[in-house]
Design goal:
Blueprint: E1 3-7, H1 11-22, E2 28-33, H2 48-51, H3 64-69, E3 73-76, E4 80-84, E5 89-92, E6 97-99, E7 102-105, E8 109-111, E9 123-124, H4 129-141, E10 144-148, H5 152-163, E11 167-172, H6 179-182, H7 184-196, E12 200-203, E13 207-213, E14 216-222, E15 227-229, E16 232-235, E17 239-241, E18 253-254, E19 256-258, E20 264-266, E21 269-271, E22 276-280, E23 284-286, H8 291-305, E24 317-322, E25 325-331, E26 338-345, E27 350-356, E28 361-367, H9 370-382, H10 388-391
The structure holds flavin-adenine dinucleotide (FAD).
Flavin-adenine dinucleotide binds next to helix 1, strand 2, helix 8 and strand 24.
């Protein structure tokens, strides 16, 4: 292999490039990224950066020296606009066409928008460092904030906005925050957490419009006709894999770039991170928007691009920080699974729980119990029979 192109210069793209070099790839390496910034870490955006606790230098993923050691050509501030997977060519937005014999797709995900309201000043999305700095400035000037979407991003921003002393309303059509990720019991604990910190949690109702005056947002209208005044609105209604540039490429695009169990999308093409959907040998088709997965999958994808054949079958890991609560999750959680608290007590603000599909343990969750999370991870890895979690000491 003589020329590998990595498209997407963030967690997954950088890790893939490093893994290629570590595995002995000595050929030409080109890294293409739409953002003008050097690779940086996204999880602190909705936490330390938004709160103003860290400055932006702190989230840079590698020093200039380490980036230089990669001996790669960096094309930043330029998107890839098309791929010809058969002819092995990537076209860039500035018209350049680059030939490759190996390609890593690591273009992440793009925030979903509402079908209305985004032309109003004061309406924000959150994905990039630039989005975060704009939101941080907005929060400094705002008094009332409406957050559309009570997923992990909406919930984290609600927590920061309350810490900044703002009046916060969080709205979601589902019955409780993060219910899709964590299920009903956890959803109601999260609603309690946010209400306890003064957030007006409005779940089970959709937003029907954003209202404005002279081009500036003034609030949110709900499906029952009620109004929530707000001088800042964050739309946090999920993200979709960034695959627009792959239309007509010859790759199979479903919920992300569809890959086999080796993260291979086509001969000479692998995908990793938020953009990749792959066939997990134990679990079936999955696409994860988790920071740890970006690193692990990019490493596996890079090795497989170089000719190894290692199935990618991680125990996935995800965390979220809200107020003084850290929630950590290994494996599969969700509202379609059984849920059982196995240690601690929610009333004490520390507990751990397991998720199961009726037969086996699929996931483990810890709420301010990090050590327990690591212990319970073993039950996820071993797929412990669900029935034995009722009787055995965990
Ligand atoms: C605010 C925020 C907070 C988060 N907090 C957590 C957390 O607490 N815990 C957790 O586990 N995960 C968290 N995540 C998720 C985690 O950050 C992602 O899973 C991770 O960043 C995925 O890495 P990636 O490299 O696949 O994609 P990304 O980080 O999205 O990077 C993709 C890069 O590709 C670029 N790109 C897109 N299209 C093109 C193109 N056509 N050409 C060239 N470049 C392109 C993008 O501009 C971007 O720089 C958070 C995400 C966000 C946004």
């Amino acid at each position: 292999m003589e020329h590998v192109i990595v498209v997407g210069a963030s967690a997954a793209g950088l890790t893939a490039a490093e893994a290629l070099r570590r595995e002995g790839y000595a050929g030409e390496l080109t890294i293409v990224g739409e953002e003008r910034h050097s690779p940086y870490d996204r999880p602190p955006l909705s936490k330390q950066i938004l709160r103003g606790a860290w400055d932006k230098e702190r989230i840079v993923l590698r020093s200039d020296e380490l980036l230089a050691d990669l001996n790669a050509a960096w094309i930043l501030g330029t998107a890839a606009s098309a791929l010809d997977a058969l002819g092995r060519k990537v076209t860039l937005a500035d018209g350049r066409v680059l030939a490759y014999d190996g390609l890593v797709i690591a273009t992440g995900a793009t925030p979903r928008r509402l079908p209305f309201g985004h032309d109003l000043a004061g309406v924000h999305l959150l994905r990039t460092l630039d989005d975060t700095l704009a939101l941080r400035d907005g929060l400094r000037q705002a008094r009332t904030v409406a957050i559309v979407g009570a997923g992990f991003l909406g919930a984290e921003v609600a927590a920061v906005a309350r810490e900044l002393g703002l009046a916060v309303t969080m709205i979601d059509p589902l019955p409780a925050p993060m219910i899709r990720q964590f299920g009903a019991e956890m959803g109601s604990l999260l609603a309690q957490l946010h209400r306890g910190h003064g957030v007006d949690v409005r779940c089970g109702i959709a937003v029907s419009a954003l209202t404005g005056d002279e081009g500036r947002v003034t609030g949110v209208e709900l499906a029952d006709g009620s109004q929530v005044p707000a001088d800042l609105v964050l739309v946090a209604v999920g993200a979709t894999p960034a695959t627009g540039w792959l239309a007509g490429s010859g790759l199979v695009i479903g919920d992300g770039v569809e890959c086999d169990q080796y993260c291979v999308a086509a001969p000479g093409v692998v995908a990793a991170g938020d953009v990749a959907s792959w066939d997990h040998p134990g679990v079936g088709r999955r696409r994860l928007e988790h920071r740890m997965n970006a690193t692990e999958q990019a490493t596996a994808a890079a090795k497989n691009l170089l000719g190894q054949s290692i199935p990618f079958e991680p125990v996935s890991y995800f965390w979220t920080d809200q107020y003084d609560v850290k929630i950590q999750v290994y494996g599969r959680s969700g509202d379609d699974l059984d849920f059982r608290i196995v240690a601690g007590d929610p009333a004490d603000g520390r507990f751990a729980a397991l998720y199961g599909d009726g037969e086996r343990v699929t996931g483990a969750l810890a709420w301010n119990l990090p050590r327990q999370a690591r212990v319970l991870r073993e039950h996820v890895a071993r797929r412990t029979p669900w029935s034995s979690t009722e009787t055995e000491s965990l």
